[in-house]
Amino acid sequence: MAIELNHTVVYARDRRASAEFLAEVLGLEVGAPFGPFLPVETGNGVTLDYYESPDASFTPQHYAFLVPDEEFDTMIGRLEQMGVTYYADPSHTEPGQINRLFGGRGAYFDDADGHNMEIITRPYSRG
User: Any bridge partners for residue 41, and if so which?
Assistant: First the structure.
């Protein structure tokens, strides 16, 4: 059996709002609560398990999602409709722009908890 990432915990001030935000942007569904977690499952079976930490004593993280090229523009449109600024770079210095790294397209945006989310249409080259 190959080793795979199964799930990861995403800390949030409001797990429902944060899970629904990401699900809306990506066109996914929020799953049923599982104990203290609220999952958003990706197409490869990995879940982001939102865990509520109202005291905000967590460090924002980076989450990157490989998305189909034909859905990228729809996701950018959702961000625009939601009033969320997206950027071409992880440092957020190029607002309203996308990047074209490795022959694909990509963009970064923050969620309400300051997590730096990324959508890309091509995996980054590791060579």
Answer: 47
> pLDDT at residue 127 above 70?
no
pTM of this structure: 0.94
Give the CB-side neighbour count of residue 40, counting CA atoms within 13 A: 23
Residues 6+ apart with CB under 8 A from 56: 13, 113
pLDDT-based confidence at residue 126 (cuts at 50, 70, 90): confident
